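Researcher: Let's try something more involved. This one mixes different molecule types, so please make sure each is placed in the same coordinate frame as the others.
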Amino acid sequence: MGSCTDEELMGLVQKQDVSAFEELFQRYEGRIFSFFWRLSPNRQEAEDGTQETFLRLWKARARYEPEGKFSTYLFQIAKNHFLHERQKRGRRMDSQQVSDETAEPASAERVDGPMLAGEVRVAVTEAVGRLPESLRLAYVLTEQEGMSYKQTAEILECPVGTVSSRKVEAVRKLRELLEPLRDELWGDGRQ
Amino acid sequence: MRSCDKYQADIVALFDNEAGDDDLRLAGGHLQNCPQCRAFCLDLIAIRRIQTTAPVPSLSPAARQAVLDGFKATQSGHSESRRARFFRLATLVRWAAVLVIGVLAIACLALGRTAKDLRTRLGTAEQQVAAIHEQAKLAESEERQRKALSALYFRMAELEERVNRGSPSQRASFPVQAYDRAERQNNL
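Model: All components are placed in one shared frame. Result:
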């Protein structure tokens, strides 16, 4: 079972093979959990998202086409669940969009004195969590999951050029959000 | 001429291994002369470095177990729902059979009653036809008697005529002379 590719395992899952499903779960649980964690750094939400993603994978196993890459299929399910949950909570797609007027100051302004390295990391994670969802998804998939623009485009169901422009826009927004932390950012690097 | 936006997009693409050698060369040349894009590039490096060192928690064993339990529950729920669907179907079939039998029984009852009814009507009709036949026979025999009587009167009238044309003695001896002609006509 361990030598099988993801796609072969998924073929077995389509034939109701439970052990193949457990193998896929072991391979991807960490990535899916960190994907949700990076989109929204909340343990409970990330755990719920991971659970729901794998349950949906089991339920939607018949729709999987072996021609496609398994990880793309799985991350599509995770992305759809993430967006669905956001909509369910009554939040608009871009309700958390950070504009010049609404952007909250970065954490550095709320503490006295220089931040510790751990706090800077938390501030950066929080800043990613405050990006608009479309930019956040593109940023997390390419930057933190290390996916190519092509695979990200397949997951987000948009053109490759859109992924590229969203990524650049996300970096710009992050720079704006982390502007008050500029010294700490570089200080952290120097530590 | 390329804008800083385009160069910044190239810089991001370079970090993501999505840019070619030409983009690298152009961006490198631009970075030497553009402090804004250089700052952009340095910030990108700093953010990336912090994020790669940021710890990401892993799924807790309890949550992992919950996922597997949830999956197993879905599986048993799935088989349970199949069982439930089977029983629902069986009940449906049973009720359908009862319904069909009921409809057939009612239909048979109705048909039996109708047949009995028809048989009774047929008997009555047959009796009526027989009565009509009887009447017809009676009428026919009366008609025959009337015709015979008429023929008899006609014959008698002929005989009377013949007698009248004969001798007076014969005429006197013929008993029909006394019979009134007009009365005979009325009888006819």
